[in-house]
What does this fold into?
Amino acid sequence: ALTVLMKNVPKQMGQYLGDVLGPVWQTLTTSADTYVNTTVNAREDADDPVDSDGEVLGFENLVFSIFEFVHALVETTKHKQLIIQGIADLTYYILLYMQITEDQIENWSNNPDAFVEDEDEDSFAYSVRISAQDLLLALCQELAEECGQGLIVAVGRHLERAASQRTAGDPAWWKTHEAVMLAMGSVRDLILDQVTKGQLQFDLTNFIQSIVLADLDPNFSPFLAGRALWCGSRFGQAVTPEMLDRFLQATVSALNHSPNPIIKVSGVRSVWGFCEYLKGSGTPGALQPYLPSILDGLVTLATQASSEVLSLILETCCIVVSVDSNFTAANVGRISTLCLAVFIKANNDPVLVALVQDVVRELCQNPGCTTTLQTKFIPTLASILNASTDKVPPGMQAVALDMLEVMVRSSTPPLEEPLINVAFPAVVQRTLNTDDNSTLQNGGECLRAYVSVAPDQVIGYHDAEGRLGLQYVVQVATQLLSPATSEHTATFVGRLITVLIRRAGDHLGDNLDLLLRAVLSKLQGAETLTVVQNLVLVYAQLVHSQLEGVLTFLAGVPGPSGQSALHFVLTQWCSKQHLFFGAYEGKVSAVALAKLLEHGVTSNDSRLQDIIVQGDQVFSPECRVRTRSQRASRPEQWTQVPVLVKIFKLLINELANAIDSNMTKDDDEQESEDECWEDDEEEGQTNGDTTLASMFAPSSSYPGYDADTVDEEDDPDAVSDPLYSLDLQQYLTTFISTFAQHPAFPVFVPHLNPHEQEVLQGIGVQC
It folds into this structure.
């Protein structure tokens, strides 16, 4: 209840916080000893109460609630000062709650998969340990400078406490060290940044020497030794060359010689950390003497590992193969054999398949690996595709097509012979001879990759019967567009046709007309927005490159209702434009509409002038919710406007959306800055955003905090299009401002509604 109040009415809660914080703090601190004795060390039985329904109210629930309340307090700017005053003590107790429990030790020792999953930063599991980590990260994000200082004070207290425990013969002393290293490693970037800038007085190298290296001894606890390996790999910047060698030797030993799965898994994590640091710092040579042993350990462990551990191994392999291209080329046979074995065994596991693809992608980009890699993979993938559907596991052929697409996309043209003469015909035949939606979609996407990466080789290909590669691709595209196939098979076919036109348009001949008719036919029956958008964008792309040609084609083909196909396509386009999604797709569509408007106005093209479409919806004066029968008897009413007017209205709407989107981004940035200034004025604290930006970047251990990658376009064909980097707001502002000077502009003004006029006035266009 307190948390809900703090989140929703923080201002009103301010007057009561003095009365609330005392009991909350007392509960947190007095509960710590109980938690350590009953849960962490299991030396006492927990006396958990039972609610009215007979459900046990575990002690953990209380801790979760307190942490959530503190989290809400930290995120409320006005009340951060209350946290700052006691941040060292708060951090001390957070570390107490971060200790490994006896239940976790038992569970993880018997199930390494659970260890990997629970200790992963993206884990969906939840525990007091994870909750404490989350709170520590929140403190570091909101109170960077103070949290760094508080953490170091808390670490010092815990190390003294552990020394006393050890002297007294307490066998649980190591849990304190493990929690300290977990906390330090979790906020590594913050610590390194503040130490480097002199904001934090802490001998990091001595900490690593006296604590981390000393705790590598597996006789204390495999969990402690494993955490020390991980912590060492997190602080590569702070270790001396001699210390680095000791860590790497311990890592290799953990992988190859330790009988304990916890230490082996920690060794894998350590490899990833050191590879990331040494590669990023430009000193990968330090790894070279250890790479053979590292690869031996990873491959051996992979043959025995279950899914979660195997995922970690593959993720680590991906960075290992990127460290030294010569070493990778010399060992590509073993690596590709491992990848192929995992692919065949776990083709129904999307996580493992994606990780295999990541490794294959790295290998394809290494010229010394391509021949061996393709020799290993291509015959097997072709065999899977050529096999009868009932002879392979369900879904395997679709996954094989996806794997081939990765190989084609990642290879440098010209593609080697196996990809063209063995894989390409197998892709074509499988796609032409299946009714499985996933196989059809993946086959189309794979062929798009071929046409995009190696159009000349596709054009030059011919089989024993003399059929050309381009003919096969067109045949696949028309099959994907067939009215007899599911609508969903056409979800991505628009991209295939667009790439065909862009990369091989001069060689299509009459096939272009065939494809455009097939697109038109599919569009007439399409109901799903994704499919409609995909198909409309084929014509939008043609407006960019062949405006007169596409207008002539559509005007000369009859539509479904007796009018021209141009009328049908523009009606569909204009009615759905406001629903289209995707930043790149939005630019393609909006700029194409602008080109159509410009052409229609400047050339007075009767093919466009004569088309009438729906304008604005007409609402009744009552403006009330209508029943189903009322909607049936009185359907929606719309104004009727010339299509060029509708296009202009849509462009104004796109401009408004672009302005709103950019303002939202600016507001978010300004709000962040304002909070920081407010903190500075009220609390005298520094921002620390730069530190946290790096802490939560994708290349670090916390990918979920990086907001800039959420909308990132990963389609290589889109990225290569100049429209991808277009500033749509600037483009539309210039276009509309220029159009407003045209003599035809006054004809459009009476059709504009108040909102549209307001948008125009906002860019200096008077109506």
Notes: The chain has 41 helices and two strands.
